[in-house]
Structures are given as C-alpha cells and as structure tokens.
Amino acid sequence: MLREDLLQQLDGLRVRLPGLRQRSDVAALARALLAREASAPALSAEVLAALARHPWPGNLRQLHNVLRTACALAAGEPLIGLEHLPAGFAEALPVAAAGDIDQGSVRPLGDLQDEAIRQALAQCGGNITQASRRLGVSRNTIYRRLRQG
User: Where are the alpha helices (DSSP H) in 57-138?
Assistant: First the structure.
C-alpha cells in the first residue's frame, strides 16, 4: 500500500479514455495500428465494416491482436479480407439486417474457418502448434476441424 501523501503526489492528471466499443473511429484506429506494421496489407471495405460493427469487449490490445492475426493470415496478399479475420471474430458480430448482406458473397462460416486453418498450416509448414498460435485457437480446435473436413 502506498503512503497517502505519495499517492496524492502521483495522482495528478486523470485521463479517462472511452472503451473501444464506445468509439466511433475504430476504422481509423485500425488503419493507424496497421501503419505501424511493416508491409501490412490494406483493409477491405468489408473488414472495416466488420470492425466497426464488432462489440469490442476488450481494448485497443484486442483490436491490435485481431489485426496482427489477419496480417499473418493475409501474408503476401495486398488486401485483408473477412477470410483473414481470426476464428471466433465473426461469431461475435451482431447479426446484420437481411438487406445489408449481398447473398452472392456470403460463404458458410465453417468454410472460412477451414480456409484460415489451411492457410495458417501452409504458412507454418504444417506445424499445428504455430498455426494454433497464429489463429488464436487451441491445437484441439485445429485437430477437430481437420477431422471434420
């Protein structure tokens, strides 16, 4: 426990930052975070919309981790698409109104997960442990998806 007088000296300016879910500039934040990454691909319009719709229970670190995973999955590609977002991200998105979705571009979530797993395994030379870390899922999840596919 700090001494009361020392605590009062340290307790100067308090800055209260809004939670990520309360911010309206998530797209700008995402672009700024990506600008710090070396040779990071750009974000597609669909990804920017998904980032804006996400409920963000975490903070900027959560957004940064989502973007780092997407960059890893999109390695060598010029654009980060929805298929590059980490597994579990899409499940947390609020359901869009029926008129907001172009039915021709919608793919089953399981297909996207399988594609992300295949890409991560290819990038990791088949190493399931490394792929699971990149995707932010357990090794058991990867093994289960491989058995199902």
Answer: 60-73, 109-123, 128-135
Nearest CA to 93 among 47, 128, 145, 27?
47
- Rounded CA gap, 8 and 2, in Å? 10
Do the domain assignments include residue 4?
no
Total domains in the fold of the chain? 1
Boundaries of domain holding 33: 20-95+106-148
Cβ 87 vs Cβ 52: under 8 Å: no
- Among candidate residues 88, 95, 35, the one with its CA nearest the CA of residue 64: 35
80/88 Cα distance (integer angstroms): 17
Mean pLDDT, consecutive 10-residue stretches, the chain (149 aa), reads 70 76 89 86 90 86 90 87 83 55 63 84 90 87 84
Task: Count the alpha carbons within 13 Å of 55 in the hemisphere toward its beta carbon.
Answer: 10
β-strand partners of 43: 80
pTM over 0.85: no
